[in-house]
Amino acid sequence: MSVRRSVCVFICVFCFCCALENVKRFSVQELTVTQTELKDCEEQMKLCVTSSDDCLYSLSDGVPQVPRTPENFLNTSCHYLYHEKSFTCRWIQTNNVRSQTINSFIFSRHKDFWHCDQVFFIYSTFNLTIRSVIGQKEQFSAVYPLFMQDITQAPQPLITSVNVTDSSINVTWDGSEKSITECRIRYKRLNAESWTETADFPASIESHFVIEGLQAFSEYHLSISCFYGFGRWSNWSNDTRVKTSESLPSAAVSLSYYVKSEENSQQLLLLWKALEDTDARGFILGYEVSYMPIKQPSQKKTLNTTHLKVMVPVRAEEYEVSVCAYNGAGRSPYRQITVNASFSHDVAAVKSLWVYSDGSSLQIFWEHDFSAVNVSEFAIEWSAMTDPEHTHWKRVNGSTFTAHLTGLEAQQTYIVGVSPVSECLCGPQTLISADLHHGALLDLVRFRVLNVTRSSLAVEWMWQEAKPKVSVIQYRLLLSGPHEAQSLTVLPYKQQHLFLHLHPNTKYSIHIQGQTKHGNFSKASLDVNTLLLDSDEQMRFTALAVLLLLLCGIFSVLTWTMCREYFSPIIANPRYSLIGRWLLNPHLQGSAEICVLKLDSLFPVEQQTEKSILQVERRVSLISDHEDVFPLKTSSSAEDTALWKPSSDYVENAPTPTSVPEYVDLPLFPETSGYVQN
Questions:
Q1: Taking the complete model, does pTM exceed 0.70, yes or no?
Q2: Residue 54 pairs with which residues in a beta bridge?
Q3: Which ranges carry the Fibronectin type-III domain (predicted)?
Q4: What domains are there in the chain, each with its CATH number?
Q5: How many whole angstroms separate alpha carbon 72 and alpha carbon 324?
């Protein structure tokens, strides 16, 4: 199997090499000869050659009889320079041999050449054959019939001087060639793609021409070509770079403002756009800024600056502001606006400003809310921290949220600011620091959980100025759980996030991930469990449980009371009173003596005026042997006595009660009370 594979590989390599050998190679060939290099062929009077070996070829009608391969000589072009007495041909040669090529010319014609210097006579006609020797192989071109007057080319002009104004260039060139009859000039602005050619104009003795209608303070490339009146135009002269002079700026600057209020003071930020080159018409030396309270014109102030912004202190009143640019030629028209410093406006600052390194440049991007006003442009300013006065500016369209900053130094730290612009209004500037190695010099730290509920999770982090290990394109916040996953970009304007619609009592993992050009890395991570119940739900559950217990207690008390009242009434127990214990005393049974209770110790003297005698009776139950105590009977007569009767006699003689006897509430007897027996 390995042998077969090796054979296949060898065959493929061999075929590839053969294909390379068969591929035709193209090379540009050029040969220049002068009149002195031509040689006569003594035996061939109709030939003039550049190599004596070419005299051996036979002629037929003035043409060498040789095998020709015109397909190997493509795009052949020849010309004769009269002032240099040189003849040049250029062609594209095709061959498949990597060898040195030796070229030669064979000049022939029907008539004899008396002398070879007649070949380059202005009215001469002849046939040209190009011979190329490649290795050991000869190739001959087709026969080219030439007429010297048609291929004679004027010499290349030389521009000697240029004089400029703000809109024209006066070109002067070498006019020593008296035979030149016409010339033309071409020109284009720097970095333009196409040339503009003037019409052919007669060559004058002074040899100069004025190009008009040019833009002021603009750099142009120009060259000139001339003509004998016959033959071919000369080659274009070498490009000459020239710059038109300055003139007054033709347009006013585009001005915007922002009122910044701080406690009891206001500051007015004025921001303007640099003039385009077509409007500046020169090098802008600076800007003149004037601001004047409308109600107090005498307090007008004027200052000059080279920056594209200025901040001045103002009071809470209306001001008239004007700004103009000036160059070496003078001032531009003034841009005037009226500013009310009593209140600010609604152009919000950009957010999510971030910078990352892109090799030798910085890529910045941002976000902006268009809910308030329509932003037409973003003004980007950057400067090195070591040279804050030397600032650079760039404007991008309002629909663009990214910009590319170039021309930065590797060891410098830069401050980058972005301001939104809406016609004559602008927003506050958002700043960030960055360098070419790290990008934004901000790092994300202190990642922690801020709050947890049963369906939401809040996290918090902080940003600090630092030099991260790598250039971070952006940070992303990731949440993953058994039921869902969420992801969002976090940038410096944001320091916390709330995840909603989560599942209760579920474990979630939260990560902050940094994105770089070479991959992603984990910056911080947390594992958090959502709650089973929220605190307010717990409070509601506790209050409901307490209320339910309270209702149950009230219901049980009411139920117990009703059961005692209607289903299980209280039966009096004589053992819980002194009288009951006295009546139930066993030593009173079996005695027929009359016991009279002494009341002297129970009632005070003043209450003994009307004496009462308690009659105690003993009744035996007819149903059981237990004794029942019946109510005491009181008598208001002083002569009544309490008798103790045997239970048998009492039962026989006692009347049957008609109703349940009522209990008589009696005072409690103190422990000092007693009884007597009579």
A1: no
A2: none
A3: 154-247, 251-346, 440-536
A4: 22-152 (2.60.40), 154-243 (2.60.40.10), 254-340 (2.60.40.10), 351-439 (2.60.40.10), 441-529 (2.60.40.10), 574-677 (no CATH)
A5: 67
